[in-house]
Amino acid sequence: MLSTLLIALLALNGLILGMCLFLLGARHWLASYGQVKIRVNDEKELLVQGGNSLLLSLVSQKIFIPSACGGRGTCGYCRVKVLEGGGSVLATEQMILTPAEIKEKKRLACQVRARHDLVVQVPEEFLAIKEFQTVVSKVEVMTDLIKKITFKLIDPKTIVFKPGQYVQVSLVRPGEEPIYRGYSIASSPFANDIIELNVRRVEGGVMSTYLHTLKEGDSMVLSGPYGEFFLQETTNRSVVCIAGGVGLAPMKSIIAYLTEKKIDRRVYLFYGARTLPLLYDHQVFVEMAKRNPNFRYIPALSDDTVGSEWNGHRGLITKVFQEVFPAGEPAEAYLCGPPVMIDALLPLLAAKGIQPNDIYYDKF
Ligand SMILES: Cc1cc2nc3c(=O)[nH]c(=O)nc-3n(C[C@H](O)[C@H](O)[C@H](O)COP(=O)(O)OP(=O)(O)OC[C@H]3O[C@@H](n4cnc5c(N)ncnc54)[C@H](O)[C@@H]3O)c2cc1C
Ligand code: FES
């Protein structure tokens, strides 16, 4: 009797163990897609671990795709064509892509999962984007929230970029997908062995908080250059730069380039911040305006109390631009700052006669 009971118990245990093993195996089988092939631009064939986003799969193979929102499907920067194997267009993608783009098979690389073999086409300029091993060579505290961080390029040792473009910073945390964020290059293209970034710490922000912990000697991987926001060099019209807060970063690169290349164009810098301590690099531009008759510097404080030592413009930079910039002057405009500032500026620029095709901006 006892032996029958023992045999029954053993059989039951065996059955339970077998079921557990079966479930574990099934889970592994369901979760793993094995390796998938990605054919890129009819040139390269990549073999990647299936199941990850197309964006991460391409980046893991050193094909760098812009991703300003860190893969949340909100910035639209990661558009590529998926000719085969991408599955249905997701609702998140339908909010960003136009019907015409969907028809021509454009997708958001961060939203497409590499579950099956894929055939994709990425813009040729993405294939030129490189990864840079760097070391932090200088950290300067500019305001309570903004740090200027300079990276010395180690490998490759130099970078070629257009003034206004940005780099992506990657952060790999154990057990989590890597995250990527864009930061405008603030240094001049002529200082091609370094990259200066101006980073505003965002409350609770993963990357900006991390970047604020960097100190001299720390290693960092950057990729770039990215972006279609850069100085146009086909005309001699005036260059109107309008920056809010840390939106100054790409303007510094544009202005440094124009100055160092001695390009004979009139340059305006409208630069807005709440208070004087937040107007970082203010003195640099004050001095530059004294030396360079082509450069006009128009700073404005929006929250400065009347009666303080500030004797410049007061109010939002949008209002100051409207008051100061002469209507009808042939110009192109470069805007960088919070979305609300840029949205408010677009009709004001139009009213001054600056055509939509001559307005370039990065919102952040
Ligand atoms: C082309 C481009 C260039 C950029 N250049 C610069 C630059 O030169 N300097 C710079 O400091 N930043 C720049 N940014 C913004 C930068 O990429 C990050 O978005 C920013 O640093 C926040 O990232 P995070 O990981 O710290 O915050 P996250 O972890 O992404 O966000 C944390 C929280 O903060 C909110 N949040 C995110 N961004 C902002 C914001 N800007 N203001 C208020 N709340 C926010 C989020 O909604 C979230 O709730 C640029 C962005 C783009 C697209
Ligand atoms: S939409 Fe921003 S990375 Fe894809």
From TrEMBL:
FAD-binding FR-type domain segment(s): 129-232
Entry keyword annotation includes Secreted: no
Classification via Pfam families: FAD_binding_6 (PF00970), Fer2 (PF00111), NAD_binding_1 (PF00175)
CDD domains named in the record: fer2
GO MF terms held by the record: iron-sulfur cluster binding; oxidoreductase activity
Gene3D superfamilies named among the record's database cross-references: 3.10.20.30, Nucleotide-binding domain of ferredoxin-NADP reductase (FNR) module, Translation factors
The organism's place on the tree of life at top rank: Bacteria
Signal peptide annotation: none
Residues that span the membrane, as ranges: 6-30
InterPro entries: 2Fe-2S_ferredoxin-like_sf (IPR036010), 2Fe-2S_ferredoxin-type (IPR001041), Beta-grasp_dom_sf (IPR012675), Cbr1-like_FAD-bd_dom (IPR008333), FAD-bd_FR_type (IPR017927), Flavoprot_Pyr_Nucl_cyt_Rdtase (IPR001709), FNR_nucleotide-bd (IPR039261), OxRdtase_FAD/NAD-bd (IPR001433)
UniProt keywords, alphabetically: FAD, Flavoprotein, Iron, Membrane, Transmembrane, Transmembrane helix, Transport
2Fe-2S ferredoxin-type domain location: 34-126
PANTHER family: NA(+)-TRANSLOCATING NADH-QUINONE REDUCTASE SUBUNIT, NAD(P)H-FLAVIN REDUCTASE
Name this polypeptide is given: Na(+)-translocating NADH-quinone reductase subunit F
